[in-house]
Hints:
The complex is a heterodimer of chains A (113) and B (116).
Chain A: E1 5-7, E2 10-13, E3 19-24, E4 31-38, E5 42-50, E6 53-57, E7 64-68, E8 74-78, E9 87-94, E10 103-104, E11 108-112
Parallel strand pairs in A: 2-11
Antiparallel strand pairs in A: 1-3, 3-8, 4-5, 4-9, 5-6, 7-8, 9-10, 9-11
Chain B: E1 2-7, E2 10-14, E3 19-27, E4 31-38, E5 44-50, E6 56-58, E7 64-68, E8 73-78, E9 87-95, E10 105-106, E11 110-115
Parallel strand pairs in B: 2-11
Antiparallel strand pairs in B: 1-3, 3-8, 4-5, 4-9, 6-7, 7-8, 9-10, 9-11
Amino acid sequence: KAGVTQTPRYLIKTRGQQVTLSCSPISGHRSVSWYQQTPGQGLQFLFEYFSETQRNKGNFPGRFSGRQFSNSRSEMNVSTLELGDSALYLCASSDSSGANVLTFGAGSRLTVL
Amino acid sequence: AQSVTQLGSHVSVSEGALVLLRCNYSSSVPPYLFWYVQYPNQGLQLLLKYTTGATLVKGINGFEAEFKKSETSFHLTKPSAHMSDAAEYFCAVSAAGGTSYGKLTFGQGTILTVHP
Lengths: 113, 116
C-alpha cells in the first residue's frame, strides 16, 4: 500500500510570492490534515479536510488555505509569503475510524528568501 | 484544550542502555495519546498509540509506553537502545471520541542520542 505522497519535496520562494503544496493520501483514507513544523514553534496544526469539507482548522492567518478534491487528494496554498513561513509542511491522512491515527508524508520543505 | 510537555529536549544513552523519554499531558477530556519518531529529512512515523483498553501499549522497534491517568503521563521506554534509535521523538495528544478531526497537539520533541 502506497504511503502519503507530498510534492514537491523542496522548494524556494521569495517574499510576496505564493506557493501550492500537494498531498496524496493513502488509498481509502478520506481525511487529510496539514501541519507546519518549525524549529521555534514545533509542530502546529493547520487544517483538516474530509470529503472535500474543512472540518477543523488551527490558528493560522487567512494566507494559509487548503482544499480537497473528490479523490481525497489535497492541496494547501500560502499566499503573500513571509520569511517566517519557511518550514517543513507535513501532510497526514487517516481513516474514518475516529481514532485520529495519522500517517504522515515526508513533507515539503519551503524556504522563503 | 490539550497540551503536552516532554521533559528533556535532549536525552543521551549508551547503546544497550534503557531508553526513557518522558511525556506529561493535559486534557480536559479523555485523551488519545501517541508517540511519533522523526528521522532527519523525513516525516513522522507512528511508534505506538493509546486509544482505549490496555494502558500498557507496545509499539514498533521494541518501544512501549504506559498510560497513567493519575499522573497524566505517557512515558516511552525501550529496554535496550540501539544506534538506529537515534532520532527525534514526539509525544502527542488528541481528544478521544472522534471529534478531533485530524488535530494532534504535539510536544516540543526530544532528541535521542545513542553512544556506542
